Amino acid sequence: MEDMSADKIFPVDYIKQSRNFIITFLFLVIGFLTIPQLLRFPDSGLDRSWQIGLHMAAISKFQFGTDIIFTFGPLGFLYRPVFCEFNTWIISAAFILFVHCLLIYSITIVMKRFLVHPLDYVMMAIVLILAIPTTHLEYKLLFSISLLLYLANTNKPKTTRCLALISFVSFLIAVVSLLKFTATVISFSMIVFMVVFYFYKKYLSHLCCMLFTYIISLLILLTLTGQKIANFPTYLLNSFEIAKGYNYAMSLSGSGLDVLLGLCIISSSIFLLLNSILKRKTSLIFFLLLNAGFVLVGFKHGFIRHLSGQAQIFFANMLLVFCSFYIIHKDKLTLLPKRLCLVIIYTLIIFMIKGRSHLLLPNALGNLKTASSTLSLITSDSGGRAQILENAKSKIRKDYPLSNETLKHIAEASVDILPVEISLAYAYDLDWSPRPIFQTYSAYTNKLDKLNSQYFESGNAPEILLYALRSIDGRYPLFDTPATFRTILKNYKPLFVDGKFVILKKTNTPNRFSAKTISTIDAEFGKTVSVPKAEDGYLFAKVYMDYNWLGQIMKLAYKPPLVSISLTVEGNTVKRRFIFSTAKNGIFLSQYIDNTEDLFNILNGEVNNNLDTILISTKHQSFYDKNIRIEFFKVPYNVSKSGLPPKNGTN
């Protein structure tokens, strides 16, 4: 009988081409359904404010590490495509679209290169539909980099094409290194691993190619963004300081079930690595070690601000890692690791669907509208774009109206806005002169607080401050940056109250603050401490406390338990979250302040000494040293009084 096999009816090349076409079409559709938002307009609010700040910093070519210290780097404006100015927006939108396409392309190459069961296509499609809209830009780029590095070094690694791909990937690593500091840490772990790998394999040309391209790309990118090369070490050191303080200061607790799943994922990753080492599966070891930083840093990042949805980002990242690992190494995995991968993948899918079920029904119509709006903006003339920007600014001005008196003071003056509302600088076209940590809540450590304080002592300090009473996560605003607050008391004079803001002007003759120690007390957790009265000056207290060895381990591996401070105010108790690192600089204890008028009065030297006691507490004392030292001191008022706080800029 005539052979009627598929190979006879359809040539092998035809079958392969058809399969590749179907894969490409499938992932192009997924790419369109998950296309990221490419156009955001300036607006009020905390998140949009720092996004605007990053774009303004890029436009003004502020030096990161000195002028600006934040969780993002010189390329941080790429993170969100906010239309503050056409050039930074179009670069940001193009970059975000490029990263999205690169991830889809990398996954498509993986699916084409390895023999994949039809059900695996369905699984990967679900994973991408859930993961891509959930994860963040830096993780998309980092995972694409890891896939490309894996493909380059496990398939004909000694070819010229491989070297070209390594050069391209090294450039991308340089880009992501300047995007966000957590991405810098992950990218550095990838470089270290690849250097060790190339050295072990004696691929010296690959090693030189990667390091040379990375360093040259880094230098070029720093130059293009207006950064001084000599300033780069300072940028790294201060970014590390931000990262060091972020762990405690920004932590939020969430579901214990989420944490359990996260620990299971970390444990499973370790098991898969050890199993691969024992069985000498080199390609598996390569993949897992290459992504080790991605997994571990992703876990930390995901569970620090757990309650705000960051854990979902970690789950999305792990879906990408485990699904790709399973598909690539399916034929090399023994039964137990294979089943473990599938259990992790299916569990993560269930968790993701439970929290973000709407992602299973992508908004194709919404994506078309987004694409249309983006194209419309690109093709608009300069007049049309200017009107769009003016409309956005007008909306912010309605959210934060300023009186004519305030506008008169800030018209020709350098200005900074505390604690977070940087969008005002953009909306009112102010001469923005930001303190280094331009979002006050991000000055997580005593060193960062001192950097802001030193800025307000310098010759570059802004002439006018707009100061609002605001913080995040249940903190007390005046405890966020105690050294900075004391410097503002010393160097600025309150003019009047305008809505949510106290308007302050820099004095020509700063007050001469000479601190005088009142008393030093050894306190403990849960022990009430009486607050002394300083009738002739401002009262401050330096609070010295720290983690013990167990707390240091918890801080490194996960996050330490929170500490609270209870303030007794005329018989009533107010409990606030306590960032004890900055408290070493001397927290303000003359008076509890909960409104703008009280803030004005304090800045004007009018204090009612309504604080009676403080009490520091935590639910888990075993992670902290028992001894807490509190040093009370005072500084004289010595201010020129401005009278009662006029409203809305009227005298």
User: Which runs of at least 5 residues are low in confidence (pLDDT < 50)?
Assistant: 1-10
Strand content: 5-15%
Spatial shape: globular
Number of spatially distinct domains: 3
Helix content: 40-55%
- The quaternary structure here is single chain
Q: Care to count the β-strands?
A: 13
Q: Indicate the radius of gyration in whole angstroms.
A: 28 Å
Biggest sheet descriptor: 5 strands, mixed
Strand order of the largest sheet: 2-1-3-5-4
Average pLDDT number: 90
Topology, element by element:
Elements: H1 6-9, H2 12-33, H3 46-60, H4 86-113, H5 118-131, H6 137-154, H7 160-177, H8 181-201, H9 204-224, H10 232-249, H11 256-278, H12 282-290, H13 292-304, H14 310-329, H15 335-355, H16 364-379, H17 382-399, H18 404-410, E1 414-418, H19 423-427, E2 431-432, H20 446-457, E3 464-468, H21 477-480, H22 482-491, E4 492-498, E5 501-506, E6 516-523, E7 529-530, E8 537-544, H23 549-557, E9 563-569, E10 572-577, E11 587-588, H24 596-603, E12 611-618, E13 628-636
Helix pairs in contact: 2-4, 2-5, 4-6, 5-14, 6-7, 6-8, 6-12, 7-8, 7-9, 8-9, 8-13, 11-12, 11-13, 11-14, 11-15, 13-14, 14-15, 20-22
